[in-house]
Amino acid sequence: MTSRERIRAALNHEKPDVLPIDFAGHRSSGISAIAYNRLKMHLGYARETTKLYDVMQQLAIPEDFILDRLSGDVVQVRRLVSAFQVKGDRYKVSELPDKSPCMVPYDLNPVVNGKGDFEIHDSETGELLAVRPKDGTLYDSVRYYLEDVETLEELQEQLVLPVVTEEELAFIEVQARELYYNTDKALIMHAGCSVFEQGQQDFGYENWACHLLLEKEMVHEWAEKMTDAYVVNLQKMLDRVGKYLDVLIFGGDDLGNQIQPQLSPELYREMIKPYHKKIFRFVRDHYPGVKVALHSCGAIYDLIPDLIEAGVQVLNPVQISAKGMDPVKLKREFGKDLVFWGGGADMQQFVAGTSNIEDIYRHSSELIEIFNQDGGFVFNQCHNILDEVSPEKILAIYQAALDWREKEKMEL
Protein backbone atom coordinates (compact mmCIF):
# COMPACT_ATOMS: atom_id res chain seq x y z
CA MET A 1 0.00 0.00 0.00
CA THR A 2 1.00 3.60 -0.49
CA SER A 3 0.88 5.93 2.50
CA ARG A 4 -2.42 7.35 1.24
CA GLU A 5 -3.94 3.91 0.78
CA ARG A 6 -2.74 2.88 4.24
CA ILE A 7 -4.34 5.87 5.97
CA ARG A 8 -7.55 5.46 3.97
CA ALA A 9 -7.79 1.82 5.03
CA ALA A 10 -7.46 2.84 8.67
CA LEU A 11 -10.06 5.59 8.22
CA ASN A 12 -12.48 3.04 6.79
CA HIS A 13 -11.87 0.59 9.65
CA GLU A 14 -10.09 -1.80 7.33
CA LYS A 15 -6.84 -3.51 8.19
CA PRO A 16 -3.96 -1.79 6.34
CA ASP A 17 -0.80 -3.62 5.27
CA VAL A 18 1.17 -2.12 8.16
CA LEU A 19 0.61 0.33 10.99
CA PRO A 20 -0.22 3.86 9.70
CA ILE A 21 2.06 6.52 11.19
CA ASP A 22 1.60 10.26 11.61
CA PHE A 23 4.76 12.20 12.39
CA ALA A 24 4.01 15.90 12.90
CA GLY A 25 1.27 15.76 10.29
CA HIS A 26 -0.90 18.53 11.70
CA ARG A 27 -1.16 21.22 14.37
CA SER A 28 -2.26 18.79 17.10
CA SER A 29 0.22 16.02 16.33
CA GLY A 30 3.18 18.25 15.67
CA ILE A 31 6.65 18.86 17.01
CA SER A 32 8.16 21.93 18.62
CA ALA A 33 10.67 23.56 16.29
CA ILE A 34 13.23 23.45 19.11
CA ALA A 35 12.72 19.71 19.61
CA TYR A 36 12.76 19.26 15.83
CA ASN A 37 16.12 21.02 15.54
CA ARG A 38 17.56 18.83 18.27
CA LEU A 39 16.23 15.74 16.53
CA LYS A 40 17.78 16.83 13.24
CA MET A 41 21.12 17.52 14.90
CA HIS A 42 21.01 14.12 16.63
CA LEU A 43 20.40 12.44 13.25
CA GLY A 44 23.14 14.42 11.54
CA TYR A 45 21.06 16.89 9.54
CA ALA A 46 21.59 20.64 9.24
CA ARG A 47 19.16 22.85 11.15
CA GLU A 48 19.15 25.91 8.89
CA THR A 49 16.34 24.56 6.72
CA THR A 50 13.84 24.23 9.60
CA LYS A 51 10.63 26.16 9.02
CA LEU A 52 8.37 27.28 11.87
CA TYR A 53 4.78 27.61 10.72
CA ASP A 54 2.60 27.62 13.84
CA VAL A 55 3.48 30.82 15.66
CA MET A 56 1.47 30.15 18.82
CA GLN A 57 2.67 26.59 19.39
CA GLN A 58 6.08 27.09 17.70
CA LEU A 59 5.71 24.00 15.51
CA ALA A 60 8.00 22.93 12.68
CA ILE A 61 7.12 21.70 9.20
CA PRO A 62 8.60 18.18 8.99
CA GLU A 63 10.90 17.79 6.00
CA ASP A 64 10.82 14.89 3.57
CA PHE A 65 13.99 13.26 4.88
CA ILE A 66 12.58 13.20 8.43
CA LEU A 67 9.24 11.82 7.20
CA ASP A 68 11.16 9.13 5.33
CA ARG A 69 13.27 8.31 8.40
CA LEU A 70 10.19 7.93 10.61
CA SER A 71 7.84 6.59 7.90
CA GLY A 72 5.27 9.35 8.20
CA ASP A 73 2.18 8.67 6.10
CA VAL A 74 0.51 12.08 6.46
CA VAL A 75 1.19 15.62 5.25
CA GLN A 76 -0.66 18.79 6.08
CA VAL A 77 -2.37 21.32 3.86
CA ARG A 78 -1.50 24.37 5.93
CA ARG A 79 -3.84 27.29 6.45
CA LEU A 80 -2.60 30.72 5.44
CA VAL A 81 -2.70 32.08 9.01
CA SER A 82 -1.90 29.81 11.95
CA ALA A 83 -2.44 32.45 14.65
CA PHE A 84 -2.28 36.14 15.53
CA GLN A 85 -2.76 37.38 11.93
CA VAL A 86 0.69 36.08 10.87
CA LYS A 87 0.64 34.70 7.33
CA GLY A 88 2.70 31.65 6.42
CA ASP A 89 3.23 32.24 2.71
CA ARG A 90 6.71 33.81 2.94
CA TYR A 91 9.70 33.06 5.15
CA LYS A 92 12.84 34.74 6.44
CA VAL A 93 15.95 33.71 8.37
CA SER A 94 15.64 33.96 12.14
CA GLU A 95 16.25 31.95 15.30
CA LEU A 96 14.26 30.11 17.91
CA PRO A 97 14.10 30.95 21.63
CA ASP A 98 17.03 28.55 22.24
CA LYS A 99 19.05 30.53 19.64
CA SER A 100 19.10 27.69 17.12
CA PRO A 101 18.60 28.67 13.43
CA CYS A 102 15.18 28.64 11.84
CA MET A 103 13.05 30.08 9.08
CA VAL A 104 10.00 31.96 10.36
CA PRO A 105 7.01 33.59 8.66
CA TYR A 106 8.05 36.85 7.04
CA ASP A 107 5.32 38.82 8.81
CA LEU A 108 6.37 37.65 12.29
CA ASN A 109 7.86 40.79 13.82
CA PRO A 110 7.46 40.66 17.61
CA VAL A 111 8.20 43.72 19.71
CA VAL A 112 10.26 43.40 22.89
CA ASN A 113 8.59 45.18 25.80
CA GLY A 114 10.16 46.69 28.91
CA LYS A 115 10.19 43.32 30.69
CA GLY A 116 11.99 41.63 27.83
CA ASP A 117 8.86 39.76 26.74
CA PHE A 118 7.98 39.39 23.05
CA GLU A 119 4.69 40.91 21.93
CA ILE A 120 2.64 40.49 18.76
CA HIS A 121 0.35 43.42 17.90
CA ASP A 122 -2.48 43.87 15.41
CA SER A 123 -0.82 45.35 12.33
CA GLU A 124 -3.67 47.81 11.78
CA THR A 125 -4.92 48.78 15.24
CA GLY A 126 -1.79 48.16 17.28
CA GLU A 127 -3.80 46.13 19.79
CA LEU A 128 -1.82 43.57 21.77
CA LEU A 129 -2.68 40.03 20.60
CA ALA A 130 -0.13 37.70 22.18
CA VAL A 131 2.90 37.59 24.46
CA ARG A 132 5.85 35.23 24.77
CA PRO A 133 7.66 35.58 28.11
CA LYS A 134 11.36 36.35 27.71
CA ASP A 135 12.28 32.97 29.17
CA GLY A 136 9.40 31.11 27.51
CA THR A 137 8.98 29.33 24.20
CA LEU A 138 5.25 29.71 23.42
CA TYR A 139 3.00 32.68 22.71
CA ASP A 140 -0.05 33.19 24.91
CA SER A 141 -3.16 34.84 23.50
CA VAL A 142 -4.19 37.88 25.56
CA ARG A 143 -7.03 39.36 23.48
CA TYR A 144 -10.66 38.44 24.26
CA TYR A 145 -12.50 40.93 22.15
CA LEU A 146 -16.00 40.18 23.49
CA GLU A 147 -15.01 40.08 27.16
CA ASP A 148 -16.97 43.25 28.01
CA VAL A 149 -20.15 42.19 26.19
CA GLU A 150 -23.07 41.77 28.60
CA THR A 151 -26.19 41.99 26.45
CA LEU A 152 -27.53 40.50 23.25
CA GLU A 153 -27.57 43.94 21.68
CA GLU A 154 -23.90 44.51 22.47
CA LEU A 155 -23.04 41.13 21.01
CA GLN A 156 -24.85 41.91 17.78
CA GLU A 157 -23.00 45.22 17.50
CA GLN A 158 -19.52 43.84 18.19
CA LEU A 159 -19.51 40.31 16.76
CA VAL A 160 -17.00 39.79 13.95
CA LEU A 161 -17.62 36.69 11.85
CA PRO A 162 -14.80 34.62 10.33
CA VAL A 163 -14.28 34.95 6.58
CA VAL A 164 -12.05 32.86 4.34
CA THR A 165 -10.42 35.03 1.68
CA GLU A 166 -9.65 34.29 -1.95
CA GLU A 167 -5.97 34.66 -1.01
CA GLU A 168 -6.29 31.76 1.43
CA LEU A 169 -8.34 29.65 -0.96
CA ALA A 170 -5.61 29.97 -3.57
CA PHE A 171 -2.95 29.21 -0.93
CA ILE A 172 -4.56 25.95 0.20
CA GLU A 173 -5.52 24.88 -3.31
CA VAL A 174 -1.96 25.14 -4.63
CA GLN A 175 -0.64 23.15 -1.67
CA ALA A 176 -3.31 20.48 -1.86
CA ARG A 177 -2.84 19.91 -5.57
CA GLU A 178 0.95 19.69 -5.29
CA LEU A 179 0.87 17.36 -2.30
CA TYR A 180 -1.78 15.15 -3.86
CA TYR A 181 -0.01 14.66 -7.18
CA ASN A 182 3.64 14.86 -6.06
CA THR A 183 3.49 12.64 -2.97
CA ASP A 184 1.77 9.41 -2.03
CA LYS A 185 0.86 10.77 1.42
CA ALA A 186 -2.59 11.19 2.90
CA LEU A 187 -3.66 14.83 3.17
CA ILE A 188 -5.07 16.46 6.30
CA MET A 189 -6.16 20.05 6.87
CA HIS A 190 -7.26 21.95 9.97
CA ALA A 191 -10.71 23.42 9.65
CA GLY A 192 -10.54 25.50 12.80
CA CYS A 193 -14.26 26.11 13.33
CA SER A 194 -14.16 25.47 17.07
CA VAL A 195 -17.24 26.19 19.14
CA PHE A 196 -16.39 25.66 22.81
CA GLU A 197 -12.82 26.94 22.61
CA GLN A 198 -13.72 29.82 20.31
CA GLY A 199 -16.18 30.96 22.97
CA GLN A 200 -13.37 30.91 25.50
CA GLN A 201 -11.16 32.87 23.13
CA ASP A 202 -13.78 35.47 22.22
CA PHE A 203 -15.36 36.10 25.64
CA GLY A 204 -12.54 35.03 27.98
CA TYR A 205 -12.47 31.79 29.92
CA GLU A 206 -14.30 32.92 33.05
CA ASN A 207 -16.90 34.91 31.13
CA TRP A 208 -17.59 31.98 28.81
CA ALA A 209 -18.13 29.57 31.69
CA CYS A 210 -20.61 32.00 33.24
CA HIS A 211 -22.39 32.74 29.96
CA LEU A 212 -22.97 29.03 29.29
CA LEU A 213 -24.99 28.87 32.49
CA LEU A 214 -26.47 32.34 32.86
CA GLU A 215 -26.61 33.96 29.41
CA LYS A 216 -27.80 31.08 27.27
CA GLU A 217 -29.70 33.21 24.79
CA MET A 218 -26.57 35.21 24.05
CA VAL A 219 -24.45 32.08 23.68
CA HIS A 220 -26.96 30.56 21.25
CA GLU A 221 -27.02 33.79 19.23
CA TRP A 222 -23.23 33.84 19.09
CA ALA A 223 -22.97 30.13 18.22
CA GLU A 224 -25.70 30.29 15.56
CA LYS A 225 -24.02 33.18 13.79
CA MET A 226 -20.54 31.67 14.08
CA THR A 227 -21.49 28.23 12.82
CA ASP A 228 -23.46 29.71 9.92
CA ALA A 229 -20.25 31.52 8.96
CA TYR A 230 -18.23 28.33 9.46
CA VAL A 231 -20.46 26.44 7.04
CA VAL A 232 -20.03 29.13 4.39
CA ASN A 233 -16.24 28.99 4.83
CA LEU A 234 -16.17 25.20 4.82
CA GLN A 235 -18.07 25.10 1.55
CA LYS A 236 -15.65 27.56 -0.05
CA MET A 237 -12.61 25.60 1.12
CA LEU A 238 -13.88 22.13 0.39
CA ASP A 239 -15.15 23.09 -3.03
CA ARG A 240 -11.52 23.91 -3.80
CA VAL A 241 -9.60 21.19 -1.93
CA GLY A 242 -12.11 18.55 -0.80
CA LYS A 243 -11.25 16.25 -3.69
CA TYR A 244 -7.65 16.10 -2.47
CA LEU A 245 -8.23 15.76 1.28
CA ASP A 246 -8.54 12.60 3.32
CA VAL A 247 -9.18 14.22 6.71
CA LEU A 248 -10.54 17.56 7.89
CA ILE A 249 -9.75 18.09 11.56
CA PHE A 250 -11.82 20.46 13.67
CA GLY A 251 -10.63 22.24 16.77
CA GLY A 252 -9.07 22.49 18.99
CA ASP A 253 -12.17 22.08 21.03
CA ASP A 254 -10.72 20.82 24.28
CA LEU A 255 -13.83 19.67 26.10
CA GLY A 256 -12.00 18.07 29.01
CA ASN A 257 -9.44 18.83 31.65
CA GLN A 258 -7.27 16.22 33.33
CA ILE A 259 -10.00 14.80 35.57
CA GLN A 260 -13.38 15.50 33.94
CA PRO A 261 -15.18 17.25 31.07
CA GLN A 262 -15.17 21.04 31.28
CA LEU A 263 -18.96 20.95 31.05
CA SER A 264 -21.52 18.31 31.93
CA PRO A 265 -22.92 16.04 29.22
CA GLU A 266 -26.30 17.74 29.72
CA LEU A 267 -24.83 21.20 29.20
CA TYR A 268 -22.82 20.00 26.20
CA ARG A 269 -25.98 18.62 24.58
CA GLU A 270 -27.84 21.87 25.18
CA MET A 271 -25.21 24.48 24.34
CA ILE A 272 -22.50 22.98 22.12
CA LYS A 273 -23.63 19.77 20.45
CA PRO A 274 -26.22 21.34 18.10
CA TYR A 275 -23.48 23.50 16.59
CA HIS A 276 -20.94 20.70 16.41
CA LYS A 277 -23.56 18.62 14.64
CA LYS A 278 -24.31 21.41 12.15
CA ILE A 279 -20.73 21.73 10.96
CA PHE A 280 -19.72 18.06 11.20
CA ARG A 281 -22.81 16.85 9.37
CA PHE A 282 -22.42 19.50 6.69
CA VAL A 283 -19.05 17.99 5.78
CA ARG A 284 -20.29 14.42 5.96
CA ASP A 285 -23.40 15.14 3.88
CA HIS A 286 -21.72 17.19 1.16
CA TYR A 287 -18.14 15.84 1.04
CA PRO A 288 -18.38 12.16 2.02
CA GLY A 289 -14.83 11.42 0.87
CA VAL A 290 -13.45 13.66 3.63
CA LYS A 291 -13.41 12.18 7.12
CA VAL A 292 -14.44 14.41 10.06
CA ALA A 293 -11.85 14.48 12.84
CA LEU A 294 -12.06 16.31 16.13
CA HIS A 295 -9.16 17.40 18.29
CA SER A 296 -10.36 17.40 21.89
CA CYS A 297 -8.01 16.99 24.84
CA GLY A 298 -8.70 15.75 28.31
CA ALA A 299 -11.09 13.48 30.15
CA ILE A 300 -13.89 13.38 27.58
CA TYR A 301 -15.02 9.76 27.97
CA ASP A 302 -18.52 10.81 29.08
CA LEU A 303 -18.94 12.98 25.96
CA ILE A 304 -17.72 10.51 23.35
CA PRO A 305 -21.14 8.98 22.56
CA ASP A 306 -22.49 12.48 21.88
CA LEU A 307 -19.48 13.34 19.72
CA ILE A 308 -20.08 10.23 17.62
CA GLU A 309 -23.75 11.14 17.27
CA ALA A 310 -22.78 14.68 16.27
CA GLY A 311 -20.71 13.28 13.40
CA VAL A 312 -17.14 12.75 14.64
CA GLN A 313 -15.40 9.91 12.82
CA VAL A 314 -11.80 10.39 14.00
CA LEU A 315 -10.72 11.36 17.53
CA ASN A 316 -7.44 13.06 18.39
CA PRO A 317 -5.23 13.19 20.51
CA VAL A 318 -6.62 10.36 22.71
CA GLN A 319 -5.20 11.69 25.97
CA ILE A 320 -4.81 8.41 27.82
CA SER A 321 -3.42 10.01 31.00
CA ALA A 322 -6.72 11.82 31.67
CA LYS A 323 -9.27 10.23 33.99
CA GLY A 324 -11.47 7.63 32.34
CA MET A 325 -9.45 7.55 29.10
CA ASP A 326 -8.31 3.96 29.51
CA PRO A 327 -7.03 2.63 26.15
CA VAL A 328 -8.58 -0.82 26.50
CA LYS A 329 -11.96 0.63 27.41
CA LEU A 330 -11.85 3.23 24.64
CA LYS A 331 -11.00 0.67 21.98
CA ARG A 332 -13.57 -1.83 23.22
CA GLU A 333 -16.46 0.61 23.55
CA PHE A 334 -15.83 3.02 20.67
CA GLY A 335 -13.45 1.27 18.28
CA LYS A 336 -16.22 0.38 15.83
CA ASP A 337 -17.38 3.98 15.54
CA LEU A 338 -14.17 5.96 15.91
CA VAL A 339 -10.72 5.94 14.40
CA PHE A 340 -8.21 6.75 17.13
CA TRP A 341 -5.57 9.16 15.83
CA GLY A 342 -3.03 9.39 18.65
CA GLY A 343 -2.75 7.62 21.97
CA GLY A 344 0.60 6.11 20.99
CA ALA A 345 2.55 7.64 23.89
CA ASP A 346 1.51 9.54 27.00
CA MET A 347 3.63 12.66 26.62
CA GLN A 348 2.32 14.47 29.71
CA GLN A 349 3.12 11.95 32.39
CA PHE A 350 4.87 8.81 31.21
CA VAL A 351 7.33 10.16 28.66
CA ALA A 352 7.94 13.36 30.62
CA GLY A 353 8.33 11.42 33.85
CA THR A 354 10.98 8.88 32.85
CA SER A 355 14.43 8.94 31.31
CA ASN A 356 14.43 5.20 30.66
CA ILE A 357 14.35 4.83 26.89
CA GLU A 358 13.52 1.13 27.06
CA ASP A 359 10.44 1.89 29.19
CA ILE A 360 9.24 4.48 26.65
CA TYR A 361 9.70 1.99 23.81
CA ARG A 362 7.76 -0.66 25.76
CA HIS A 363 5.04 1.88 26.65
CA SER A 364 4.41 2.75 22.99
CA SER A 365 4.54 -0.89 21.91
CA GLU A 366 1.86 -1.82 24.44
CA LEU A 367 -0.40 1.01 23.28
CA ILE A 368 0.00 0.00 19.65
CA GLU A 369 -1.07 -3.53 20.53
CA ILE A 370 -4.26 -2.18 22.13
CA PHE A 371 -5.31 0.46 19.61
CA ASN A 372 -4.22 -1.33 16.42
CA GLN A 373 -6.48 -4.33 16.88
CA ASP A 374 -8.72 -4.66 13.80
CA GLY A 375 -7.46 -1.38 12.34
CA GLY A 376 -9.04 2.00 12.95
CA PHE A 377 -5.82 3.47 14.36
CA VAL A 378 -3.23 6.00 13.20
CA PHE A 379 -0.13 5.98 15.37
CA ASN A 380 0.92 9.26 16.91
CA GLN A 381 1.89 10.43 20.38
CA CYS A 382 -0.74 12.16 22.55
CA HIS A 383 -0.58 15.75 21.26
CA ASN A 384 2.46 17.77 20.19
CA ILE A 385 6.07 16.96 21.05
CA LEU A 386 7.19 19.85 23.26
CA ASP A 387 10.61 21.50 23.19
CA GLU A 388 11.99 19.67 26.24
CA VAL A 389 11.49 16.17 24.78
CA SER A 390 14.87 14.71 23.88
CA PRO A 391 15.70 13.16 20.50
CA GLU A 392 16.28 9.83 22.22
CA LYS A 393 12.75 9.81 23.62
CA ILE A 394 11.23 10.79 20.27
CA LEU A 395 13.10 8.04 18.49
CA ALA A 396 12.09 5.48 21.12
CA ILE A 397 8.42 6.31 20.57
CA TYR A 398 8.65 6.03 16.80
CA GLN A 399 11.02 3.07 16.80
CA ALA A 400 8.28 1.13 18.55
CA ALA A 401 5.99 1.92 15.61
CA LEU A 402 8.64 1.09 13.03
CA ASP A 403 9.43 -2.24 14.68
CA TRP A 404 5.72 -3.05 14.82
CA ARG A 405 5.60 -2.46 11.08
CA GLU A 406 8.50 -4.82 10.51
CA LYS A 407 6.72 -7.50 12.51
CA GLU A 408 3.56 -7.02 10.42
CA LYS A 409 5.57 -7.29 7.19
CA MET A 410 7.02 -10.61 8.33
CA GLU A 411 3.51 -11.89 9.01
CA LEU A 412 2.19 -11.04 5.54
What does this structure look like?
Helix content is 42%, strand content 15%. By secondary structure, it is an alpha/beta fold. It has helices spanning 3-11, 33-43, 64-70, 152-158, 166-182, 196-203, 205-214, 216-241, 265-271, 273-286, 304-310, 327-334, 347-353, 357-371, 391-411; strands at 52-54, 59-60, 74-77, 81-83, 86-87, 91-95, 101-105, 111-112, 118-121, 128-132, 140-141, 186-192, 247-250, 291-295, 314-316, 339-341, 377-378. Helix 10 packs across helix 11 (304-310). The two termini are 13 Å apart. It has a seven-stranded parallel sheet with strand order 3-12-13-14-15-16-17. It has a four-stranded antiparallel sheet with strand order 8-9-10-11, with no helix packed on it. A two-stranded antiparallel ribbon has the order 1-2. The model has no long low-confidence stretch (mean pLDDT 97).
| Quaternary organization | single chain
Rg on CA atoms, Å? 21 Å
- The geometry reads as globular
How do the strands of the widest beta sheet line up side by side? 3-12-13-14-15-16-17
Mean pLDDT: 97
Range of helix content? 40-55%
The tally of strands reads 17
> Number of DSSP helices?
15
Which class do the helix and strand fractions yield?
alpha/beta
β-strand amount? 5-15%
Q: Please mark out the parts with pLDDT under 50 across 5 or more consecutive residues, or reply none.
A: none
Largest sheet, strands/sense/barrel: 7 strands, parallel
How far from one another are the termini? 13 Å
Write a compact overview of the structure shown:
The protein is built from 15 helices and 17 strands. It is an alpha/beta fold and 412 residues long.
